[in-house]
Amino acid sequence: MGRYVLRRLLQMIPVFIGTTFLIFVMVHALGDPVNALFGDKAPDPAIAAQIRAQYNLNDPLWLQYVKYMGNLFRWNFGTTFSGQSVTSLLATAYPATLKLTAVAFTIEVVFGIGFGLISGLRRGGMADNSVLILTLVVISIPTFVTGYVLQYLIGVKWGILPATAGDPLTLQSLLLPGIVLASVSLAYVARLTRTTVAENSKADYVRTATAKGLPRRRVVINHLLRNSLIPVVTFLGTDLGALMGGALVTERIFNIHGVGFYLYQGIVRQNSNTVVGFVTILVIVFLAANLLVDLLYAVLDPRIRYA
Amino acid sequence: MPAATRARWAVIAATSLALVVTGCSSSKSSGGGTNSAGVVTAWWGDPQNPLEPANTNEVNGGAVLNMIFTGLITYDPKTSAANNANADSITSTDQQNWTVKLKPGWKFSDGTPVTASSYVDAWNYGALVTNKQVNASFFGYIDGFNDVAPTSGAPKAQTMSGLKVIDDNTFTVALSQKFSTWPQTLGYSAYYPLPKTFFSNHAGYLNQPIGNGPYEISSWTRSQKMQLRPNPQYSGTIKPQNGGIDLKVYTDTNAAYADLQSGNLDVDNGVPNSALKTIQGDLNGRYINQPAGIIQTISFPLYQADWNTDNAKLVRQGISMAIDRATITKVVFTSTRTPATEWTSPVLGAAGGYQAGICGDACNYDPAKAKALIQQGGGIPGGQLTISYNADGPHKEWVDATCNSINNALGNTTACVGRPVGTFADFRNQITSKQMTGAFRTGWQMDYPLIQDFLQPVYTTDGSSNDSHYSNQQFDALVSQANAQPNPTDSVKDFQTAEKMLATDMPAIPLWYQNGTAGWSDKVSNVMLDPFSVPVYTSITVK
Amino acid sequence: MPDQDKYNEADPLAEAGTGEEEMPSAVESRTFDLGTMEGQSLIKAERLADHPETPALEDRVVARSLWQDAWRDLRRNPIFIISGLLIIFLVIMAIWPTLFTSTDPLKCDLSKSQAGAESGHPFGFDNQGCDVYARTVHGARASITVGVCATAGAALTGTLLGGLAGFFGGWLDSVVSRIADIFFGIPILLGGLVFLSVIPSQSIWIVVAFIVVLGWPQLARIARGAVITAKQQDYVTAARALGAGNSRLMLRHILPNAVAPIIVVATIALGTYISLEATLSFLGVGLKPPTVSWGIDISSAADTFRNAPHILLYPAGALSLTVLAFIMLGDAVRDALDPKLR
Q1: CB pairs under 8 A between A and C
Q2: C-alpha angle B413/B415/B420, rounded to 5°?
Q3: Residue of A nearest to B252 (CA)
Q4: In total, how many domains does chain A have?
Q5: Cβ contacts of A262 within 8 Å, gap of 6 or more
Q6: Which of A193, B443, B481, C336 is most buried by a 10 A CB count?
Q7: Within a domain: residue A3?
Q8: Which residue of A has its CA nearest to B443?
Q9: What is the CATH number of the domain that holds A243?
């Protein structure tokens, strides 16, 4: 197991280099960011050239990448075009996003698995149909609509929860964005749980456990649910990174200065320092989450082992 | 604003001055009247560039600079008239060599005096190419600019030869050409003075910029919020009527609007389009919608051979006549735009050069004549009109509506289609590198309220924002002649003669004038917008 | 069949059944009832052992019966019939929209903006004053093409790569999983802007290809997890012990048991891909205007939801109906393939 984890950690290095290089190339493929700094005016060529030199934009791409990585290892993520250090942006954005993700992830896990379990045990029942309808709603109505409607009703009209997440972020102010962010993933988790629970509830070990006279609760939690969780856990692993990096819509609606928002700004302003910096940290999260998921496989299904 | 309110406001301003200057408390009084120590929370977005006066060309950075600096002149928020502020006088006998005298005794908020060198050093800094200031071109009229900012290679000089300090309160400026309205351009943020510390401790300065304006920055959490408080050293006449402004950075205009409705935000001048239909009811009428110095246009790539013919002029006029401006401004923009009938802006006023209807019939909706003109001109070059826009801005809806209007006039549902370009940067790159093959959206926000600013940079040959690459020697000659006229009325007349040429050549179709809009909470009053659509923060009072 | 030792050594998730660690020892202390498990696998082993000398023939029999069983189950399942009819209906709408409406979806009159239903325009008008009914009907083609093709592409690629990674483990797993990680790291916005602006043609297939490129890693991870679970099952061990080849193991024994989570994720992804197309179009990198699609209409209607909800609800309803049809179809197929339900 220790060797396995070590090997996986070593594998992170090529992934890390591959991703950062890919992102670096992609941001540069978007074109020259300097003209946009001049707004609607044509840039003064001499000044544009100076700015390009400042951001190493005149170097060949590989050299820019090498320079960037060199700085990165000295924990220098560079600056944005407004002169702000990317490190300080990371320090603002990641804590906010982590809090939001924690809330959303908790909602997703608790309610997704809960609904899924209930609807899987009684297929065709009320809970099952509710999950189906919820799934259809969250898929066909975009997050920004549900976000604005919830914000308007709960935040503005009824004033039950804060309309936007303020500064500092409180659990209360993150509840609404958390629900919005979790909604689509919640549908995935609920339907995955439902299907595997329904499938496994016919399995022999469940019948046996029931036949042995184990209390239903124990059969469901220890035997049925546990063995049904592998696809769910896999999905949650892939979703964690998506929640952190892809919360742009939710972050914008609820005014959370998080990863999705800065990533978006970095992309539309074509600032490779910001984009690569944020993605670098995201990739580390992805890799850690995937490793965790693979380790969880063995916990959930003891037949799975590590060399 | 009714006259009675204004009078009351003036009295309060006079009596509460001492409180404003010394009061740092942010507590809000619960009684009637106004609370001069009350702090106003206002909508803000992240500035794009470091907060240096010559490096700020967008509205968010501009709003802050406007609060913490007072330049030589300021513009009246209502009439757009240029008034002396820090300048005592700006005079010239030949419209080319100017003498600027400052009002003595002004100070920056760090206590250091504002002198002639504060201006000369700042302008030299802004112009020097190695300082990479995006507004450097604003110093282009000053003698010696080409030495500090050659088009290529290292600068030949560090300072402009046209700037000379005479004494502490006087400096002279030699321009490279006659420019009679030059003093009226000096309210632009690029021309603000800079304190010594800007040069001695640049990094420190960028973290907390220091100016000579009505407010000073008391704290700034990047990307989150900025607190501005009245500047005790301020010597100007436009004193803050409130205890300070807290600018709050929003990720999205809708989020700000939600906060405004739920009482967490006092002034919101970034009202989203989607809220306009309900805003009157949502805010009980606490909403302002007034003209601003912004015009939106559709430009054509005149550098493409098939767009640069005499027939293509007819086609462009026809396209212009096929656009139902009245319905689009009413439906798509909820009347926050006004159909344009010329190429400047109503905020200039008649004296400033605005004259409705210069465009003539070419800007009147007439689908039948539009179709005839386009046919007469040989049809749309390439067979289909594309209107390019940057997809990261709010342009899709009006571009689609404009295309539908053209399509309906021509009886062909695919005669015109929108062409989204992913990012603003990419969009600008395609324009500046002359890659456009069809029409594209252009907008012009004035730098200062002068007709010169709407015409010279945009339509003269090699103008800094001449995106359609329109070139008409007669037009250029008239602009130069207008700039040399010592008398403002004559100058405006020449500009208008030049503008009339645009109606036939139609290098860009005027669409509509953009209004400034703002909503505010019931905690504040006296919310006004200046002609740049920025709130007049100093005048806002807290209940 | 890879070398057993190497397999066990290199595969991080090498399952117990293949090496010296016998299956029951891993099971007994935990949740499985040893007796039943063994019994079941013995029965299966016996069934397989009945015709050890004619494995090919036996294969065909099992194969035919598996898919035949499934098909027989499906035909009798009312859910399958309903979903099938729905899908046929949607496909007809996508192919011949003019059967349903003669109104031009691109003919728009701004003065009718957001107006409600009137004679000849049963769903009312959208923000641009276009007929919502005509746009909903005409939007089916682009949306269903993108949804179905992108889902099929991502599911096939993901299942193939993820399934192989899960089955073989070792370096193959490492390579596939780490490549998937790299793809996960690409923000959709950035990927879309680059991929679709570098490729000048904006045909619908480019959009489909892009969604497949971004979508497969998720399905691959789901498939990998499902295969890793399925391959420990006793009947797999038994089949392997009886000399079943890798391809037979994968197709016959593992895939039917691993397919359920893939179907679930794919059917939901179908809906999200249709929405994703709209997001891409809004970024200026998706389908070229004036293409009509549900996603584009849903996105444009979102801003005005408070004033005119009908503009959003009709295309969103059509999207829901499509997703519902495929979810039902997926459920029916999954039930039919599940041997435990027989």
Answers
A1: 224
A2: 95
A3: A252
A4: 1
A5: A89, A93, A274, A278
A6: A193
A7: no
A8: A40
A9: 1.10.3720.10
φ, ψ at B388 (rounded to 5°): -85, 145
* Greater model confidence, A84 or C270: C270
Token pair in block for residue A28: 């540069």
Q: What is the pLDDT of residue B17?
A: 34
User: In terms of residue numbers, what domain contains A225?
Assistant: 86-300
| Residue A49: inside a domain | no
Cα C213 to Cα B258, C155, C195, C206: the distances in Å are: 37, 11, 10, 10
The token pair that represents B92 in the structure block: 């010239």
Asked whether residue A205 is domain-assigned, the answer is yes
DSSP H or E run through B229: strand B225-230
CB contact under 8 A, C187 and A208: no
Residues A182 and A104: beta-carbon distance below 8 Å: yes
Residue B535's φ and ψ, nearest 5 degrees, are -60, 145
Side chain identity at A48, as an amino acid letter? Answer: A
Does the structure show a pLDDT above 70 at C58? no
B141-196 tens-digit pLDDT: 999 999 998 888 889 999 999 999 999 999 999 999 999 999 999 999 999 999 99
Residue A306 lies in a domain: no
Please report the DSSP string for C147-199 in residue order.
Answer: HHHHHHHHHHHHHHHHHHHHHH-HHHHHHHHHHHHHHHHS-HHHHHHHHHHHS
CB contact under 8 A, B428 and A51: no
Chain pair A-B, CB pairs under 8 angstroms: 144
Do B472 and B501 touch, CB atoms closer than 8 A? yes
Of the partner residues A4, A15, A263, the one whose CB lies closest to the CB of residue C181: A15
DSSP letter at A220? I
Q: What is the mean pLDDT of chain B?
A: 89
Closest partner residue to C303 (CB to CB) among B274, B328, B421 is: B274
Yes or no, beta carbons of C106 and B407 under 8 Å apart: yes
Beta strand pairing call for B337-339 and B287-299: unpaired
Please tell me whether residue C121 adopts helix, strand or coil conformation: strand
The ipTM value here is: 0.86
Share of chain A above pLDDT 90, in %: 15
CA distance C92 to C166: 39
| pLDDT tier for residue C341 given thresholds of 50, 70 and 90 | low
